[in-house]
Structure formats: C-alpha cells, structure tokens
TrEMBL record:
Gene3D superfamilies: 2.60.120.1440, 3.55.50.30. Pfam families: FecR, FecR_C. InterPro entries: FecR, FecR_C, Ferrdict_sens_TM. It comes from the Bacteria. Keywords: Membrane, Transmembrane, Transmembrane helix. Signal peptide: none annotated. Residues 169-265 form the FecR protein domain. The lineage of its organism: Bacteria, Pseudomonadati, Bacteroidota, Flavobacteriia, Flavobacteriales. Residues 312-380 form the Protein FecR C-terminal domain. It comes from Flagellimonas hymeniacidonis. This is DUF4974 domain-containing protein. GO terms for molecular function: sigma factor antagonist activity. The chain crosses the membrane at residues 82-104.
Amino acid sequence: MNFMKELIEKLLQGDITHEELQILREALNKSRNLRNFEGYLQREFDLNLALLDINLESAFSRLKLKTGKRDFKSRRRHLSPYLKYAAALLFFVALGLTLRLFLWQAEANERLVPKNESVLLELHDGRIDTIDVNQSKSMKSQNGILVARQEKDRITYENSDTKELSFNTIRVPYGKRFSVNLSDGTEVFLNSGSSLKYPVSFLDTGQRSVFVKGEAYFDVAPDASRPFIVRTDLTEVKVLGTRFNVSAYEEDDFIDVALVEGAVNLRPLSGAKKNTLTPMNPGQLARFGKLTGEISLVDVNTNLYTMWMQNRLVFRNQTFDDILRKLERHYNVDFENHNEKLGREEFNATFYRVGVDSVLNYFNKAHEIDFKIMNNKVIID
C-alpha cells in the first residue's frame, strides 16, 4: 500500500509518469487494492475531493474508454463514492489536464491577498538580517570565517571549535516555512509563525540547548555525551537522538510533543508537574495544559502532526476557531468569526497544496459557511 500511496500523491501533485499511471490503473483492478485505496482516500482526501464539481459517473465511464478496459470494475455491484472520485482523478490526469479546485467567489468584489513578510535572522550581536528565500548565499563572521550557507529556505551551519556560546534567532512569519541545519547535524523544520533560538556552534561538552516558539520538527543528531534540550516557555524536552514535533504557540492553551522515533523525556517548567519527567515512546503525543499544568499522554498517528512539512493541512475533530487560527498561520491572512456557535463546532478536513480561496470554497460548499472579504480580512457572520 505504501507504493500505491506514493503513486496517489504523485497523481495529486501532477508528477506521475505514464508508466506509473498505468501501474495505478492496473492496481485498481484488484478488489483488495480497491478496498485499501478507498480507505486511504477516505482518511486523507475525501473532504478535498468533494470540491471537484464534476460528473463522477460520466468521468468514470470516460476513464474506462480511455484505458480501453470496459470491464474495469470491482467485484461490488456499485463503486463507492470515493472510488468514483479516484476514477475521475485518473481520467483528468490521463487527459493531461491540471486538477484545480474551483475558486470560491466572495460576496464582495475584493480579492483576498495574503501578506508577504520576510524570514528574519537576528544575529548574536543584535543585527537583523532579512532572508530572501529565493536566493542562496554564504554567511561569514566579522573575521571573514564561513559560519553558514543559505540555500533558499534552509540555512546550514558549519561545525567549528568554540569556547563560548553565541546565539542566533530565526523568525518565520505566517505564510512561510523554513529549516535550519545546526552545527551538530541536527535538522530543525520551522512552521509558520515560529522562531528558534540556537547556538551558532555547540560546545564540545555539555548540553545542546535550543529555544522554540511556535511549531518545529526536530531530527536530532545522536550524541550520548551531549543531550539535546528543546525548551519552550513552559516545558523542556530532553533527548539523545530522535525525531519529534513540538507545537508551542503562545496563543494556544497547550503545548504538544509528538514523538516519531526514539525516546524523550518531557519536563514542565511550571505547574503541578513542575520538574516531573514524563517518558515518551514512539507514536505518543504528550499534551501539557498551560492552565492546568497537567500532562496527558496518548497514542496517536504522528503523521497527523508532521504533515505540515509537506505543505499539507490536516484537521481532525478540531473546532472551527482552531482551524481558523491555523489557516491564519499557514496563509498569513486575517479571519474574524462573529458566529460563536460555529466556532465551537468540530470539523475534519485535509488540504494539500491549495490556496486559501480553495479552502474557503470547501467550507462554503460542503458546510454552507458564508464568508465575505472586507479590507483584506475574511469575515464570518
């Protein structure tokens, strides 16, 4: 199924080759693959595919003609809606057309224009450097020594002997993402509206400590003699070498740590569990409540907490207000919700590499939620 998932993602991105498309067509002839495919589409894409304003029965019929397989069907008497969506997708890709979601038309004639702000690098001496994510450059010290290299939306630091720590801070605005390769080889991926304070070069001994606000995914370079510490305003995560995601936005009522691989200890810096270590295993989510000071630990699908790195928005049982808050960060647009009851309702949705207009279109069509745009702000009454 992993190979099929890869082909589906290529299909939706428009990167699938003719040979891969044929493999996917053949795979869909097998009832077992059809069931797996149906489940995958239902979990990941069903809510987005509902946006496609197409005649699915007709599209599926045209797909059979296109593939030359009139008996292209499952053992079931009727195809499920999700498989019909998949068939329609295959048909349009086979014709070489671009899949696009219909753009939502606002009540007002204004067009929503996301704000475009720059990634900022605050150097240890207080200077501010604006990062152009479309360019690449070398970054040197005042003595002319190479410190790091910027390759578009990534900075990679050199490992150098140092006797004293000096910290830089990268600030990522709403609407952008950025990554930093630290001097020890640790990779950090920063989500929209996040910041990371880190040493230009770690010392040879002692802890490797960084400070994060917002959301970041860490792939920590192993080093048993130098534990890696991730600090937020209220928590601390201690690791030796592992992969995990930290979400610590100031406006949220909680701090989440999702462990993908390895082992970590979560330690609150305040509240009822102050300084109490909570061990975590892979596949677990630890949530620290800012108001209660308590930590809950549950088993989760950690992919749901890391898909933002693939530019995918995933909402599972989240309130509309929480969704709007994440949309603000992802697209750097402003929302104003006047409907308190709607704000408390929970929704499920997945959006993959689509613009904010397409997201609004989905909620308008699928849930009859009306929007209007005023002064470049989305208003919900």
